[in-house]
Amino acid sequence: MKITVTGSIGNVAKHIAETLIANGHDVSIVSSSAERKQDIEKLGAKALIGGINDAAFLTDAFTGADAVFAMTPPNLGGGNVVENTTNAGKTLAEAIEKSGVKRVVMLSSIGADKPSGNGPIAALHRIEGFYNQIPNVKFTFVRAGFFYYNYFNDIPLIKNAGILGSNYSASTVLPLVHPKDIAAVAAEELVNLNGESSIRYAISDVRTTQEVAKALGNAIGKPELPWVPFTDEQLIEGMTQAGLPADIAEMYTDMGRGLSDGSIQEHFLATTGTANGKIKLEEFATEFALKF
């Protein structure tokens, strides 16, 4: 099969490409960076260099493909993340429709069933809506859990304050995911040309935030590492002091509120509720310790 993968060779897209190539598929990888061309070719894929907001380029990249993996960059331009991500999704939708590709797998997120109250995930809700309006294309929305890799951003907090925390409690239940488990789900769906349009969750583990703190703490030799709930104001202050723009800090605080009240996790827990991935929290914790 001929498969086009967007997302360059980031944490998810690279693993998808490696899996597909290992299984004999003809893979092209879209990247906005010419510097990635050599690394993409080393994987055994064809490099397609161009902008994610260039509809004509993307249409050419998707034309002739049996399937496309569609993802929007997590941060476009530093500010106005929801708006910029939404606009990138519109461009992808235009290219999908014009290219004639019939099978698309989109990287989405838990909480994408909600139009608001979910921070940056609101853009993915809108993009799922754009895709649903395209006729004669079978979509799978891979709704991923809270990335384990987000905890790498908390390493300075652990080192400087000896705590882990956010604006939700220690008892908050989080569906968690490793990029490799997302890639496994996406790769499986991409080669399933007979699959109907669907929502599929990619979840490695389901744990409380207190369990996250305990597992990471044990792995780094800090078994008493506590999970500390912050107020919204404390979280915004901490993020802005770390250099994040105020609108970005508020966006992630909004996502924290959605995790705190359970609205982001609600659809997953009500419809599936079980982890289908292989990489459990304790295994990720050993990876975290190496970064720490």
Which topology of the largest domain does CATH recognise? Answer: Rossmann fold
Q: What oligomeric assembly is this protein in?
A: single chain
- The named CATH superfamily of the largest domain: NAD(P)-binding Rossmann-like Domain
Topology pattern, helix = H, strand = E: EHEHEHEHEHEEHEEHEEHEHHHH
Number of strands: 12
Question: Count of helices?
Answer: 12
- Helical percentage: 40-55%
Largest sheet: 7 strands, parallel
Structural class of the helices, strands and pairings? alpha/beta
* CATH architecture descriptor text of the largest domain: 3-Layer(aba) Sandwich
Radius of gyration: 19 Å
Provide the number of structural domains.
2
- The fraction of residues assigned to DSSP E strands is 15-25%
Give the overall shape, derived from the CA principal axes.
globular
Distance between the termini: 40 Å
Strand order of the largest sheet: 3-2-1-4-5-6-10
- Point out poorly predicted stretches: none
Word description of this protein:
Strands 3-2-1-4-5-6-10 form a seven-stranded parallel beta sheet, sandwiched between helices. Strands 7-9-11 form a three-stranded mixed beta sheet. Strands 8-12 form a two-stranded parallel sheet. The model has no long low-confidence stretch (mean pLDDT 95). The chain is α/β, with parallel strands linked by helices. The chain has twelve helices and twelve strands. Strand 5, helix 5 and strand 6 (138-144) form a beta-alpha-beta unit. The protein is globular and about 55 Å long.
